Amino acid sequence: MKKIVNLNKNSELAGKVLVADSFFKRIRGLLGRKELESGEALIITPCQQIHTFFMRFPIDIVFLDAKFKVVSLHSNLPPWRITPLHWQAKLVIELPANTIIRTQTVKGDLLSF
After folding, report:
1. First to last CA, the chain
2. In this structure, are strands 70-77 and 111-112 parallel, antiparallel, or unpaired?
3. Higher pLDDT, 22 or 67
4. Is 55:97 a contact under the CB 8 Å cutoff?
């Protein structure tokens, strides 16, 4: 099981990580879930944009480049929203709402998993 750590802040974003790296896993994402529990995360790769259509809860979104540097963040993104397209992003991490604030993650931070 993977763990996601912010190397700049020495803080853990998630200890239970799922990876959506196939067409069908990326399409499904978090659909059908009632919540994303504290410490959980979903990595979607490749990914430059996400939506929260049909979701039941808000989430935090972290876009990373190929070197796992944070290129964009979206905190508490509610259901029925879509993020802008981030051309430099290679993957996205979906996290429980307020994880970005709790871990003090900012653009430019380096993550490890």
Report:
1. 10
2. unpaired
3. 67
4. no
